[in-house]
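Try it yourself: sequence plus shikimate-3-phosphate, in.
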Amino acid sequence: MSRVRVEPARPFDLTIDQIAPDKSISHRAAIFSLLSDRPSRITNFLRGEDTLNTLTIVGKLGASIEDREGVITITPPERVGEPDDILDCGNSGTGMRLFSGFLSTLDGFFVLTGDRYLRNRPMGRVVTPLRMIGAQIDGREGGEKAPLAIRGRDGLEPFNYRSPIASAQVKSALILAALRGKGESSYWEPELSRDHTERMLQGMGAPLSAKLEEGGGYRVHIRPLTAPLDPLTITIPADPSSAFFFAVAAAIVPGSQVTLKNLTLNPTRIEAYRVLQRMGAQVEFIERENLYEPIGDIVVRHAPLHAVSVEERISWLIDELPALAIAMAVAEGESRVSHAQELRVKESDRIRTVVENLRRCGVEVEEFEDGYSIKGGTLKRGVVDSFGDHRIAMAFLIGGLLNGMEVEDTDCIATSFPNFLELLSQMSEVHIGD
Ligand code: S3P
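Structure, out:
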């Protein structure tokens, strides 16, 4: 379990074109390749632990995977087969929830498990609606926790499901189940969550349509597949959630600027940059192309930050809230995050872990059930814990660019951003120890 120490940064002006490829899109590219009957070609697949676990599972389900000159070619099997072992999703909620929906509709027996953190995260949010349409899934605590044992079968019931939460993972699991269902289905969520699944599946020719509803909320209509989908040919853009750590770095270190290259500019993914803009940082979005999603660069320049209140479109910036908490801790005034109870069921309870670590750095913070308030000013050098959560580790290392920081248990960074420390060391001195 390595610990990392970072020293205060000098002002920097950097262009970063090696941000980790997008995690959400990488998971989906690997899984969706199984819906075609021809090889999919994926360039710039994220080689982080989470997505490599997903790729391994795709292989265990019978696909052949070739990795040559940076391009991963996934040739699906004629029929997805029953694996002779458990399927390990590691730390990834996305992997486990999407596979739950997908495997429920396939003939066979499948066991999904993960690391100790994932085995403690709520799975009822996918298990309950999947059971309602006839899926046979069991798990610990009545199906709330993994390992999950799935007895899959062809053709689940069509549904009209209103999800109580805006969750892209739940939505994706249900869309995957509906594509192999017995009739037309409809999925509603209270607010649009990230929509990579809809965009990518539509790009592959899937019979689904989606729209924002007048009374609020968002609905997806799904017709069952009558033929295999077109294969994917995709270059995965860089991950705006990973890039955001360096956006905060530029925003808080006086005299600094960063250009983050080739990010997905999908509106459901860049809301945190808009909040940073509202706090006073200079942020510029430069769209360059559109492949399933708008793609381009984001430039962030330092400016004195002031407090902000974040209470809507939470699902659009949920993964960036730990890094935003760092910006809030150095901004002038008291910031507040509310309606963010989903933070409690991420890779760690991120309300608890953000609050605890900020306190260790001398920041005045108040914890609420659905968020926190942060009195900005200075973020002192402290010794903090990742609590096994990659985004907590990275957020506090970025915070250390001001006055230094020591973060314990940093191995988790490899789940989503294997070259993070290498990039961080372009801004400051980084010491890695045990
Ligand atoms: C993800 C969806 C989000 C996000 C997670 C990745 C995805 O979770 O927090 O890191 O790839 O679908 P929700 O399902 O809660 O929206």
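One thing you can check immediately is this: The pocket of shikimate-3-phosphate is lined by residues 24, 94, 167-169, 172, 193-194, 315, 318-319, 342 (CB under 6 Å).
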